[in-house]
Design goal:
Layout lengths: L3 E9 L3 H10 L5 E6 L4 E8 L2 E8 L2 H4 L8 H12 L3 E9 L2 H10 L8 E6 L5 E7 L4 E3 L2 E2 L2 E5 L3 H10 L9 E12 L2 H12 L4 E3 L2 E6 L2 E7 L4 E10 L7 E4 L2 E5 L8
Parallel strand pairs: 1-4, 5-10, 11-14, 15-17
Antiparallel strand pairs: 1-5, 2-3, 3-4, 6-7, 7-10, 8-9, 11-15, 12-13, 13-14, 16-17
Amino acid sequence: MANLNWDHTMISTNDDEAVAIQLNRAGLSFKAGGEHKRWGTGNYLGYFGLNYIELITVSNEEKAKTIKREDGSAVYDAIRDYFAGKERFNTIAIRSDNIEETHEYLVNENFPVSDIEEGQRITPDGELIKWKIFFINDVIDNDFPYPFFIQWKGTDVQREESLRNKGIIKAHSAGNLIVQEAIFISRKLENDVKLWEKLLNKEAFLEDGNYIFKLGEKRLIFKQGNQSHLSALNFIGANEEIAGTQLKINDIVFNFHSKNIKKR
């Protein structure tokens, strides 16, 4: 089975630059990523090692209005959030080291997956970035998106070295920040966990009444709630000024810790 890791988190914004400015003021470094011409969207990116956060918004409303779920499920949800005036977590991307094998597995498990496509965006300095990607053309529950799957060119070690050499992965003034945990709340907890177990081909374990998936050194935590959605990100490596604090921008919630918070 292909090796899976948590690649990045997509956050829907009304104005990606405005949100990036707020985060930069808090000591988190975000820069313009580029535009997705085919979807009419653009983004700002903040890297925390290879794991990064994408602030996505609509850059071409006319083009964005033509996008259907089958054109890219997560992007479609981000576009819907934009026109609804919502700023919140959208979903996460899962990185595979063999996207064809991952795709075949999910097809055999009867998930309504899209075809594997080549995605691309143009950076502000004109560099064309490419990747392989596929989506699941549905939602898990009302307003609860599926993750999507991605594979970048080269190994993780090669990519990280390249991104550091380009100054894209660098220290944040708020500390040596790492995104360690994603917190999901679910109104149908056990059903959703079973579905994610099938998605990831991995069993969750129970800890303090919550279900945990480990992906490398990172954790996806599922908790009982009154709705179903990604609700917060937990960071480690925060400096003394922000350790123990929470940053909230509309429905976007970041929790900062100084030390490793994982238990097992």
